[in-house]
Amino acid sequence: MGNRSPILEVRQLQTHFRSGHGVVKAVNGVDLTVYAGETVGLVGESGCGKSVTSLSVMGLLPKPAAAIVGGTIHFAGRDITHLPEKQMRKLRGNEMSMIFQEPMTSLNPVFTIGQQMAEPLRQHTSLTKRQIREKMVEMLQSVGIPRAGQIIDEYPHQLSGGMRQRVMISLAMLCQPKLLIADEPTTALDVTIQAQILQLMKEIKQKQQMAMLLITHDLGVVAEMCDRVVVMYGGQVVESAEVRTIFDQPRHPYTQGLLASMPNANERKGELKAIPGSVPRPDEVGQGCTFAPRCSQAMERCRHDRPPLVALPRQSCRCWLYAGEEETALEEVAHAT
Amino acid sequence: MRPEPLLEVKHLKKYYELKKGWFSPKQQVKAVDDVSFTVYRGETYGLVGESGCGKSTTGRAILRLQEANAGEIWFAGENVARLPYERMRRLRRRMQMVFQDPYASLNPKKTILQILTEPLRVHGLYSPDERVKKASEILKIVGLSDYHLHSYPHEFSGGQRQRIGIAKAVILQPDLIVADEPVSALDVSIQSQVINLLLQLQREFHLTYIFISHDLGVVRHITDRVGVMYLGKLVEQAQTEKLFQEPKHPYTQALLSAVPITHPDDTRERIILSGDVPSPLDPPQGCTFHPRCPACMEVCRTEKPPVVDLGEHIVACHLYV
Amino acid sequence: MLDYVIKRTGQVVVVLFLALTAVFFIIRLSGDPTALFLPPDAPREQLEQFRKQLGFDRPLHVQYTEFMTKAVQGDFGTSLRTREDALQMVINRIPATFQLAFTSLGLSLLIAIPIGIQSAYRRNTWFDQAGVAATVLGQALPSFWLGLILIYLFAVQLQWLPTGGGGSLVHLILPALTLAAYSVARFARFTRSTMLDVLRKDYIRTAKASGVPTYKILSVYALKNTLIPIITLVALDLGVLLGGAVIVEVVFSWPGMGRLLMQSLLNRDFPVVMAGVFLIAFIYAVINFVVDLLYAYVNPQIRFK
Amino acid sequence: MNQSTLTEAAVNPRPAPLSRKREPAWRTYMRRLVKSPTGLAGFLIIFVVVILGIFGPWLAPYDPNQAEFAKKLLPPLTDGHLLGTDQLGRDIFSRLIHGTSVSLIIGSCTVLFAGLIGTILGVVAGYFRGWADIIIMRIVDVKLSFPFILLVLVINAVIGAGLQNIIISLVFAGWIVYARVVRSEVLALREKEFILSCVATGVPRWEIIVKHIVPNLFTPIIVLSSLQIATYIIAEASISFLGFGVQPPQPAWGNMLSEGKDYIFSAWWLITFPGVAIVMTALGVNLFGDWLRDVLDPELKGH
Amino acid sequence: TPETAGTTPTAPATPQPAGGTENTAAPASVPEELVIGFEADAATMLANTDVNYVTDIQIRNIYDPLIDRDAKGALIPVLATEWKNIDPLTWEFKLRQGVKFTNGEPFNAEAVKFNIDYILDEKNNSFYRSRWKDVKEVKVIDDQTVQVITSQPFPTLLLRIADDLLIMAPKHTKEVGLEKAATDPVGTGAYKFDKWTRDDSLKLVANEEYWQGAPSIKRVTFRIIPEFSARLSAFLGGEIHLFKNVPVDSVERVKSSENGKIELVGSSRINYLALNTFYEGPLKDKRVRQALNYAIDVDELLKSVLNGNGTKMTGPLSKVNADYTETKDYGYDPDKAVALLKEAGIDPKTLKLTLDTPNGRYPMDTHVAQAIASQLQRIGIQVTVQANEWGNHLAKIRQHEMKDMFILGWGPAFDAQGTIENLFTEKAPYSGFYDKDVEAMIQKALPIFDPAERKKAFDELQHRLVEEAAWVPLWQQGDLYAVAKNLQFAPRPDEKFLVFEMKWGQ
Ligand SMILES: Nc1ncnc2c1ncn2[C@@H]1O[C@H](COP(=O)(O)OP(=O)(O)OP(=O)(O)O)[C@@H](O)[C@H]1O
Ligand SMILES: Nc1ncnc2c1ncn2[C@@H]1O[C@H](COP(=O)(O)OP(=O)(O)OP(=O)(O)O)[C@@H](O)[C@H]1O
Ligand SMILES: [Mg+2]
Ligand SMILES: [Mg+2]
Description:
The structure holds five protein chains of five kinds. Chain C is mainly alpha-helical.
């Protein structure tokens, strides 16, 4: 793992929304590193800021409601935190691209697949019309779409969900990006189709030396796909580690609770281990640890002071429980702090 | 020692007339096509299958939220499918539903008290004061408190709303509850709370559930028997443990193998199905699964598979004839 | 397709039938036409005879049956005032009516859609608020007031344009503008709100993620989706423009259908009124049919299913 | 009339964030109103107009109907006549103030009755579907291809000209807007899970309609009405132009405008001031209605 | 006065245009075509069919009448050169020689017969027919002589001929058929038909072979502009040169414009306030009617509402009426009005009356109504004004649905019979007044043939009607015309636009 270079480095990212009810701190100090060629899983519950983090990276935050108010984002060594739209556009769909959760709504219903897929090629390359078409067909075939030549001239609603997600993937892969952000790419799909798509993404990743940030709330997907995992809770990273470490030795009480509540880990028909309470809204996060109100091990301190991200051997964890155990950080952990 | 059957569904059919475009002829979606099963008192019967296979339609047809085209639904000695409006309305006291979307299933303009007392009121149960008492009792049972009685749904989180939805269904102390994906809209950490609640209520009130879900992990945890649906048909049905250990139908086998692993070191022999779920508008001939079936035979293309009973394990597949 | 056409035709027939029936009975309530045509000193016998000649002396249901039987054959009788074929009279007005309707429609779309798009894109900026205020203003001006002011300004003071009358393109400008003022307001607001919806859609995010520049997103990717609901609104407005532009037609002496209809009503020239309502209902139905086709054209989901 | 713009108020309930202390709804709205310049402007205009409408008779300096022939057609700011006098020497300012209530009555009565009829028919069509739906929607179609002036004329012939004629004509024309909006609202609502949930509970049909569907129609109806009022106030002017307006000498903005139209070249103030009054009011109502729509549309909340 | 117009004149009394030479003398800036703004279009181009004056005014430039009126309303010969009564049932007309229709057809006795027969033929459904019903037969004596035989004495036949009858070309009409002729008229008039776009414009060109000489103005367009302000705008913008019915308050605006002037003429049309005795109300009492006559100050109305444009009337007939006689003027005397009301047992403070008025039919009609209401309010009477659309107004009158009072106009009113018979008999609803004795007097007066006796009878009737306070006479309508400065135009009391009489030049 030694000399890999980070492709994406997010440092202390803070993205806030302004709304009629005040400021929503959707992302409140996130650190995240993705190295070339690796797959990082970003897990966490709904509303914890996963999508906002990825949109911040892509420069796709809804303007003017949302803005990056702190921290930096480096992409391939270049600071893109406040890159002007024009230059950002040159990166998007080209060096970094994104797949979205909802294949059903992520394609424009009134344009053909071909018209939409041609866009990144038109924006970022100088290929001729015929070359563009050839390239698209080739790409579609590589994601296992039959009749690629015809499908190009069809409309999204003529395709099934799985097919559309394949189209989305090939749309993202067209310019061979260095980084692919996949925001819950399979959540909306059926189990059998999900298996197909995950398989496909694995294959693609192996073929192309590409880094991937995989956003999901499904630990099973993480187990299957990722090298490293970052767990988010309430707009912050609470734990990050190698995938095996997370499953074998989760340190943060939230991660532990999450793993314990998977039905398979419990006796059939028995009481599931549950995390009490519910996810806080980003606008009602008080001081102290965001997880404290639901944490069974919470101490007095947790309610008043926000814990730091503690570097432990092979993982880092934002919890006061481990405040004393700090050890020399591994290389990648240092990056992730 | 078989318990008595509470619900018997026989040859249920529900076809939707579909007219999507203005210029296309009418089409028929066979959402539920000749489904029969029995649910016994006190058990949890699971219905699984992929999106669009007709799980919800089955659930709704049982409660007559949608009128079935054909078939019988025997509940408590009466054929529900034939009951006149007013008698059906009264029977609803005994069969209730929990909906998937906790955000859409509560009237945003009503307080929790109104929502919870309405079922009692429309069935003429108790006096107004007692109803309030009942409501507050049930609220405690589902883990909320009196404090919430005068709040509106939008003041609750998804998990809390789903609890209210469940409370609303349970307050009438029905015999049967059809739960249509009651946890799939919830956060992972909340799901287990609600599942626990369902299990607890079942024990407490001797409820019978029809539990509809596509999450096989949850289904395995909570159900006693499972029916697997594919394109409007019931393709396999067995005791839960048995089904998960020894799936017979090739589709069930693929479905189970597709469930994500639970640990990075797990290895699983994946049966990756080729192709997509066919459109129910135009289901394949013969066995509807044959275009994706890894074990497809000649006969599968032309002939509908018979239903084979392998001793409390029913499967509709030519392989077992 | 055939199915659709049959069903649609059936609907149109029903609507036409109901409309004619309603007009037939309603119009009988509006008074006796005889007084308006005969000289004031005409004796009662002539009135009676005139009524008889028009068939007004017979029981209402007999008149109705006869009217319907003839109407089915396209015979609405002759105008009481001009003695010309009533339907033909109304048909003669179609060119002028269409000219005005389509010009003002085109004009308003041309103005409204860019404004609507920009307002949506720059939501809550000064441009948006000014745009909203301006379009609302357009909707708040009574049309004859606006018309007269335009005449005063452009025809009397500046003498750039004629005050009214039919014929050439220059005659069209002022009435079309007056009519457009109202539609511009509606279209712009509608475009804005639809655009706001569309801009929130996932596929717009997809386009952005592909690196498509903003102008192109607005003018191509979002616009086409926005157009679909606008078409319905346009159809609705076109119906109003065809039969209901009376005031503008009067102010600008435009020989359109609305004015003819109003005159005929005031003159109690029943055959022309009937023919007019029939034609408007018919055109309205045709427009709706065309809109459906158009809808199918821009909306592939309908086209293919 | 504008209906299609309004269906967007079709809302799916999304939660408003839970606030620690609940603040009364009207205060939230007031706070948001103060923040929106256009909404506030609209509100203030409406406020002034309503005050004038209610207290006009006490505020007007002159009897609005007293003709004083010697003082006819005085320009504004002469002889104690703020806005001048009209062709019969009546004080325009006083007439304008008195006319306010007429315009308000027309706007509000029409909205009330058209809203009521339209809502009932819309609910029936949308909830019961089938024949009721087909018949009501065909009537709507017929109505759409029916010239408005025909309606006005016939009503005029049957019951005579005047305020009630205007209101009845406008109600006749206006209910379809409501019927269409409400119908599509109901069509969407009846598929909502909370309605299904009522059915599943065994709530009788009429109770579902009255207690569950209708309350959820209030928001779109309020928004629609706020915008329709302006349309109706303007329509009064058009009807007056066609000669079926409010009867003289009673002042109404529309009939002042149409009586004044012949004076556009000789006495501009006759047509200008009522015109400005209508435009300002319509503007105010529209701005306020727009604001209301934004506020009541939870989709847009918090953005 | 039927015979008075007499047998003598051979040339029309109308100003004689100078013919061809005039054209060359005209200044170069003279517009090529005269555009007349007009509020409504003709119903048809057929003559003798539609009684509406908007039709008549336009087609009178295409067709000539047999007899016309001069500025004072006296009958003058046009296509008929002389006429006489052979016996009470027979009239003989001598026709002008050498007149040709614009298509070359000769004008002769056959043509006259054709046109009168056209009116009488039920099939043609002429709206004039009832007025001509007493005509039994038209006899062609020779090419230049025609006789009209009536079934009973018909003293007003000459008036009918003057006001109604226009001569269409018989051969043309028969050849092309009525339907075609309705859009392609041929007459003997000063102008030939050119183009007609319904509700937009009617274009005419000069008939250079006109028997009275070629018209001075070569092209005429009637432009239909229904809205007054638009008409005025078009006039101010120079698009039209002439229009009628200028609202009194806009007179100044026209006068002050660069190239406009105002022409005023007393119309034969009279305006009155009907006091309805068909309605069971207080107005059935003569004293109340008289009180209203006292309480309404017509002079003030004329001065302040009409800016003086109109001539006050005191009785049923106006001064231009041939049978006019001076009657008593009630004058303005509110005290007397109150006294009369008291006498009738009515407290004016509790009296509530309704007043119907048409809307825009007569000059300032709704304003006059409001002003009358305002005047009556001075003695405490409360008046509700109701402005009606014209069709409704007429229908309400005809169906006796009017309440206390209504405003109406009547014209052309050149003779006593046409006015009094059509207004004050039981069959006639227009004055709202009916009295048995008056009816008897009218019936007695109608068949009188002797001029002097006839005049006496009608004079008596006028006095009687005033005494009865049958209505509140208002005024003889003043017609106001906006005229381009360089157009010579003398307005006529019969409201007609005869372009032949007009010419360019100061
Ligand atoms: N447009 C927006 N306006 C205001 N707040 C927003 C907006 N978008 C997101 N948020 C807030 O930001 C927080 C983080 O949202 P985000 O979409 O990143 O969550 P997520 O982790 O992706 O959840 P999910 O699993 O549901 O996709 C949410 O709580 C949400 O309330
Ligand atoms: N109201 C309806 N009109 C027409 N077709 C319908 C309707 N409701 C459901 N369908 C169709 O019927 C089939 C079965 O739908 P159903 O909702 O029962 O599936 P499901 O198994 O519950 O799927 P999911 O897991 O997505 O909820 C689907 O193909 C669907 O498209
Ligand atoms: Mg997300
Ligand atoms: Mg479902």
